[in-house]
Amino acid sequence: MNDNRIIVRSNQDSITILSEYLNNLFKNKISEEDNHAIHLAVEEVVVNIITHGYNNSEGIIEILCQIKDSYIIIHICDYAPPFNPLFLPTPDLEADLIDRQIGGLGVHLIKSLMDEVEYKKTEEGNHLILKKRISPHIL
Amino acid sequence: MDEHLQISVREFEGILLVDLSGKIDAVSSDYYEGELKNRIDSGIKNIILNMAQLSYISSSGLRILLIASKRLKQTGGMIVLADMQPGPAGVFKMTGFDRLFPVFGTMDEAIIFIRAKNNNI
To answer: In chain B, which residues have pLDDT < 70?
Structure first.
């Protein structure tokens, strides 16, 4: 697979568009488990960009997928004000039902599902890099 | 990862049985929230979610589950989960949600659990 790029608008439709895009790239080419992890991590990043980055206003999200040395690398760029989601606190995962905070799980999921997550502030916005080591499969 | 969310509900012995199929993401979670909220508003206390056909749940879906469950707890009710697929089961484990909700292998086991809970009140 060569580098593969897609640009979507910052709105809910992008979630569905990106799910189809990732399926076209990866379904039946990597394990079901890895495919599930990538879908989930990308959704969580994009939802954060829509709600926190662009604050539900108009914007653009660019995604570039690469495969290098048995890693899938996904670059996600936006042009929103600088915002590092990796600094968001993880909710207390041990808390019981009454004390459990609502929200904040997305970033925890991204970190748990990926092998590496890196944030870079760019001149124009934000650049998040997700890396997932994939099990040997077809690709 | 390409299935639309489908929800079908029925009542059995006062328990709401909810069959979920497809995926709960940021797009479909409003529909799922509406279905749960309407039933809780109309007085349902105990809900069993049949997850056998649910392939995917993101944090948007977990959030709604948590809100609904907190509401039900105030009335002595609860949400119980049955028959989770590996993907959603992994998400529940990573987020500690597997400790917030009773999880059973089958719907029958979940029904027996709620029956026993109701008989002890």
So the answer is: 1-2, 121
Q: What is the pLDDT of residues A82-112, one digit of tens each?
A: 999 998 888 999 999 999 998 889 999 999 9
Amino acid (1-letter code) at residue A73: I
CB B54 within 8 A of CB B82: no
CATH classification for the domain delimited by B6-119, as one of 2.60.120.330, 3.40.50.720, 3.40.50.2000, 3.30.750.24: 3.30.750.24
pTM attached to this predicted model? 0.94
CB contact under 8 A, A102 and B94: no
Q: Is B5 on the interface with A (CB under 8 A)?
A: no
Nearest chain B alpha carbon to A41: B58
Q: What's the rounded Cα separation, in Å, for the pair A10 and A49?
A: 8
Phi then psi dihedrals of residue B11, to 5 deg:
-110, 145
Q: How do residues B88-115 score in pLDDT, each as one tens digit?
A: 999 999 999 999 999 999 999 999 999 9
Nearest CA in chain B to A22: B1
Give me the amino acid identity at B45: K
Give mean pLDDT, residues A43-61: 95
